[in-house]
Amino acid sequence: MPETRKESWQFGFMMCFGMVLVMTLYNLYINDMLSTITFTEGTFNFLTAFVIAFMLDMFVVSPYAKKTAGKAVGHTGNKVYMILAVSTCMVIGMAFFMSIYGLITAYMHTGFQSGSILLDYLNVFGKNFVMALPLQIVVMGPLVRYLFTNFIKTNAEAKEV
């Protein structure tokens, strides 16, 4: 999809924005905080999570996810396999790191949930992964690829002509 560094940043920005927005609302919902958090707190929470997620996406997770997916799919040439492999690797990596962020923020607000940090982390990771994988593959991935292809790529190609 993205062919240049600028396009990679644009694509990553769009994907991160959508995923973080939905996952923030999801986490507020499952923690029964939608009715207790103010709009300002929610916006601050979203923006903080977005900045962290975007930096993780661009500099940590994406390079490794693409390498891992490339090795897993090999040289089949099938674009769908590559998209699914990259999406799955991205979700695993982002859920891993963003669950750490979620656990830290949860501890700051409510304290420890169980006697074990590992159990709390696995609980958060599991809930995030179960939501993020279908969200990425079924909703956000196709939506962002469509928007990117029809608006960002089209505008870039029009400027070149």
UniProtKB/TrEMBL annotation:
Keywords: Membrane, Transmembrane, Transmembrane helix
Transmembrane segments: 12-30, 42-61, 81-109, 129-148
Pfam families (alphabetical): DUF2798
Record protein name field: DUF2798 domain-containing protein
Species the sequence originates in: Salibacterium halotolerans
